[in-house]
Amino acid sequence: MRLLFLGSGSAFTVGADNFQSNLLLISETGQKLLLDCGSDIRFSLHAAGFSHRDITDIYISHLHADHVGGLEYLGFSALFDPACEKSNLYVSKELASELWERTLSGGMRCVEGDIATLDTFFTVHPIKSQGQFIWEGIQFHLTPVVHINTGYFVMPSYGLFFEIAGVKIFLTTDTQLCLDTAESYYKQADIIFHDCETSKFPSPVHAHYQELVTLPATIKQKMWLYGYHPGSLPDAKGDGFCGFVKRGQTFEFH
Ligand SMILES: [Zn+2]
Question: What DSSP string runs through the chain?
Answer without folding.
Answer: -EEEES--B-TT--SSS--BS-EEEE-TTS-EEEE---TTHHHHHHHTT--GGG--EEEE---SHHHHTTHHHHHHHHHH-TT-PPEEEEEEHHHHHHIIIIIIHHHHSEETTEE--HHHHEEEEEE-TT-EEEETTEEEEEEEEEEEE-SS-EEEEEEEEEEETTEEEEE--S----HHHHHHHHHH-SEEEEE-B--SS--TTS-BHHHHTTS-HHHHTTEEEESBPSS----TTTTTS-EEPPTT-EEE--
